[in-house]
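User: Show me a protein chain along with its predicted structure.
Assistant: Here is one chain, sequence first, then structure tokens.
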Amino acid sequence: MSLLANLRRVGVLGINRRNAHYSLRWNDRQLYPRVDDKLATKRLCQAAGIPVPRLLAVARHHFEIRELPEQLPNGGSFVLKPAHGAMGNGVLVIAARRGDRLLRPDGRALGLDDLLYHAASILSGLYSLGGQPDVAMVEERLEVHPEFAEIVSGGVPDVRVIVFRGVPVMAMTRLPTLSSAGRANLHQGAVAAGIDLCSGCTIHAARHDQPAVPDRDGQVAAVGCRDSVERPLEHQEQLPVGRRHAEDPGAEHGGERKRDET
């Protein structure tokens, strides 16, 4: 029996079949802009009372880029990202600012000129879907929950729940690593750990195509995961379309968990 047949037999869904039979069939195409634009999604979440990372600055035109340094926290951390990006491309995480010096989670230093050049690349569409002109947005950088501090590097993990016709069918947590530069994106080298929907605990984990051991005794991902699995059901009417629901149970800021994307 072929590998493809074996995967189908055990219930593994390929990307093409997922898109044709589920994503395209059950999601109204006219609602896609709600989730393809991070700024639009943020506004919807705020209107629905869903906590989101605080927006610090936005640059829609190249002449606005030079104003970004004045809007950023001096000494604080932040994240610069494209509003229409995907797979973590173009996301720049800054762990600390010391005047004109910016420190990344891995300790590498950048100058303000590097930041402005990156923002200009975002506006030019270097990281956007389809290479179209984009918008640069800067958000607060969330802090890692103490329970996750020992298993992540330089970033905040999140939980992703896939809801099909009102029912959660699977969930996972993404754990940043050194190679992912603090980003929880699998394409950038983060660890993916499956979550048992009943217990909220991790079960299997992988990084790229190799098995990984992300946690202590398989239980650490239980921090906030049960709540994150149930919460998507509360907001289906406000966000009726989307690839997934993602929250940051590993983040702490003002006593609230922050939603990352939908």
